[in-house]
């Protein structure tokens, strides 16, 4: 196995065959920055992780998930499974209109366009899971009664952000995944709810402890 394959395995893909396949693609990997300044490999860090999102009436009606902020870090992945496509208001206005999304009060900056009927039978407030596997994204049924997270997960999110500083949310989540191979391997509450439990504030792409003026 090449050193690159070993690095891929170290980042969470433990199957040497799969690691070798990734190493032989010949393409530069997509990287991400961690909160501590290190650089991670997106596909490897995301492998096997699942993020959850609480559905709204508009999402169910349109079969479109608003990716931000709960699912946003998975948008860095290049591949998506059949039936999941990225859609942007600027370039996908016609598609969104076909799905009945014409309310300017709900138009996601970036959405996950699902197959018609994919959310049929769901109710507002239900959880949906999106899991990364083999570089692609897959919808996953989530039983709200079985959702749990390590008790210290909110604290670990908070610990990645220095007092008096702000951090990009993506970098915070990647950091937790890099530090703990088990983090987000089972469905946990949505990121927005974990941040609230950690008493963290989110403004746009940035997250901080209470009391920091984002306008400064």
Can you tell me about this structure?
There is one protein chain. The chain contains eight helices and eleven strands. Helix 1 (3-10) crosses helix 2 (16-23) and helix 6 packs across helix 8 (191-197). The mean pLDDT is 83. It has helices spanning 3-10, 16-23, 42-46, 57-62, 93-98, 153-159, 169-179, 191-197, and strands spanning 31-33, 39-41, 50-54, 64-66, 84-87, 111-114, 127-133, 136-141, 166-168, 201-203, 206-208. It folds into two domains: 50-145, no CATH class; 146-208.
Record the SSE blueprint.
Blueprint lengths: L2 H8 L5 H8 L7 E3 L5 E3 H5 L3 E5 L2 H6 L1 E3 L17 E4 L5 H6 L12 E4 L12 E7 L2 E6 L11 H7 L6 E3 H11 L11 H7 L3 E3 L2 E3 L8
Antiparallel strand pairs: 1-2, 3-7, 4-6, 5-6, 7-8, 9-11, 10-11
Main pleated sheet: 3 strands, antiparallel
Give the tally of β-strands: 11
Q: What is the helix fraction of residues, given as a range? A: 25-40%
| Backbone structural class | alpha+beta
Order of helices and strands: HHEEHEHEEHEEEHEHHEE
Distance between the termini: 49 Å
